[in-house]
Design goal:
globular; eight-stranded parallel sheet; 21% strand; 28% helix; seven-stranded mixed sheet; alpha/beta; single chain
């Protein structure tokens, strides 16, 4: 009778493929799944009775800003307690590496932490730091275009010269050789808005030969969103075609509510000829730096932090403006630099995007925000509990697929995202009847409910709902083209 490290018995298996649930026994040995069989005769010293629970692959978060968190706070409780076992960092054009020291950091690199945390001059330095920290989750990393611009441009309100493009491309090439997942852009931010399509194409040139991907916080998520999508698709269709990942797809602002029908139609049209996926978080509010261009008195804007006025943290911009006898725009100017949550989306638009088969779930959480958006702690259980169980937007196997198998396929992870023999033992055991997010707008750092066990590379990181001291994460180099 064969022996293994771990046997999980009695669970309802949802394997990440989208297929119907089935009962099975899963055996794990040396960090890998070695047997998936309803009638397994394997033995193990550690056997988990999972009756009444669902066993799924560990959730993959393709859109995070955990670049420095995986090193500074390697327990990674906001993600681990959701059942997340892999995170992708370096999104929205900002990454902790490769960074040439600069102070102050260009907007929005403050989202990644203090300047002292940005010490990784080469991408190899960053991956070594991740592995030395031994985080509780696996880490994949994009290289940020804005980070590269800050390294080589004297000011960011202009397009790069050909020499500057060459310098950025060289740094990207080095990162790709050390396993970077690809390039990300944040073209909506003023630090990259002046970059032309030609600049982005020039920097992105190595992606095709490397089998890497292009992820983008598009130039617009409001009135010009269709043009911004076309620009994103154009990068994917460059001389060496690359997969495109559109970050946190949304139609922001009341003037754009309902336009997701047109947005998704354009997405479907593009996907006939090229590889395009999107991620989306399951909330009707966004969060980032306070941006005067997003101040709109028709929506609620809540200040999460303010450098000149820390006392207003957690208050609504409208309330602050009324107290100061100013317009909201005037108050916002006085608060900057600051962070904000913008209640700028329609519930129906969010549902429409989440339901689309090319859309996976990503948190976009901001771990350094003192009053973070609840998506940092609640994204994945919210999809399982609210959107799947309560709203019945999709069935549970589809919900799990959007957080596991689809994400792994998009990111080119050939041995994760599914419960298959030979795959890495990134696993989560949850209660389908009770799993839900507990983080709220007023109490946003509450761990989710219903996550019973989490294993990362076979290491028990949560047992019976309690976080252990064991951490099994590591840096994951790029494996292949996204699909």
């Amino acid at each position: 009778m064969p022996e293994c490290d771990l046997l999980i018995r009695g669970a309802l298996l949802i394997d990440g493929s989208g297929d119907a649930p089935r009962e099975s026994i899963v055996a794990v040995h040396a960090g890998r799944i070695v047997r998936v069989d309803a009638n397994s005769t394997w033995r193990a010293e550690n056997t988990v009775d999972a009756k009444g629970l669902v066993l799924s692959p560990g959730f993959i978060d393709p859109h995070t800003h955990d670049d420095t968190s995986v090193i500074e706070t390697p327990a990674m409780l906001p993600k681990l307690t959701q059942g997340v076992t892999t995170v992708v960092v370096g999104n929205c054009g900002i990454s902790a590496s490769p960074v040439l020291p600069t102070n102050p950091l260009p907007d929005p690199m403050e989202l990644l932490g203090k300047p002292a945390m940005m010490q990784y001059r080469g991408f190899a330095d960053y991956l070594h730091a991740v592995n030395a920290a031994k985080p509780s989750v696996n880490v994949m990393a994009l290289v940020g275009h804005t980070t590269l611009r800050a390294n080589h441009l004297d000011r960011l309100d202009r397009a790069a010269t050909s020499n500057e493009v060459n310098a950025m491309r060289s740094q990207l090439q080095d990162a790709l050789e050390h396993g970077a997942l690809g390039l990300s852009t944040g073209l909506a931010y003023l630090s990259a808005y002046s970059a032309t399509l030609e600049e982005v194409l020039g920097v992105a040139e190595p992606l095709g030969d490397a089998g890497a991907m292009y992820a983008t916080h598009m130039r617009s998520e409001t009135a010009a969103i269709l043009d911004a999508m076309e620009e994103s698709f154009a990068v994917g269709r460059s001389s060496q075609p690359v997969p495109v990942l559109i970050s946190h797809l949304k139609c922001a602002g009341p003037d754009n509510w309902g336009r997701t029908t047109d947005v998704l139609a354009l997405l479907d049209k593009a996907r006939i000829k090229q590889t395009v996926h999107c991620d989306c978080y399951p909330y009707t509010a966004s969060s980032s730096m306070l941006d005067l261009r997003q101040v709109d008195e028709r929506i609620e804007i809540r200040i999460t932090w303010s450098e000149p006025h820390p006392e207003v943290s957690g208050r609504a911009l409208a309330e602050i403006a009324a107290q100061w006898n100013k317009t909201q725009l005037e108050a916002a100017k006085a608060l900057m630099p600051a962070g904000a949550i913008y209640h700028n989306m329609s519930p129906e638009d969010v549902k429409r995007v989440l339901r689309h088969p090319a859309v996976m779930v990503g948190s976009d959480g901001l771990p350094h925000d003192p009053r973070p958006h609840p998506r940092l702690w609640g994204t994945f259980p919210r999809v399982l509990g609210y959107y799947s169980r309560e709203e019945q937007l999709f069935d549970l196997p589809t919900a799990v697929h959007k957080m596991t198998g689809l994400s792994a396929q998009t990111l080119g992870l050939r041995d994760r995202g599914l419960i298959r023999e030979g795959f890495a033992a990134d696993l989560v055991l949850f209660d389908p009847a009770t799993v839900r997010d507990a983080a709220t707008w007023t109490d946003s750092t509450q761990p989710s409910i219903g996550i019973h066990h989490v294993w990362v590379n076979g290491i028990a990181s949560i047992t019976n709902g309690t976080v252990t001291t064991q951490r099994g994460g590591k840096f994951l180099p790029r494996q292949s083209h996204a699909a």
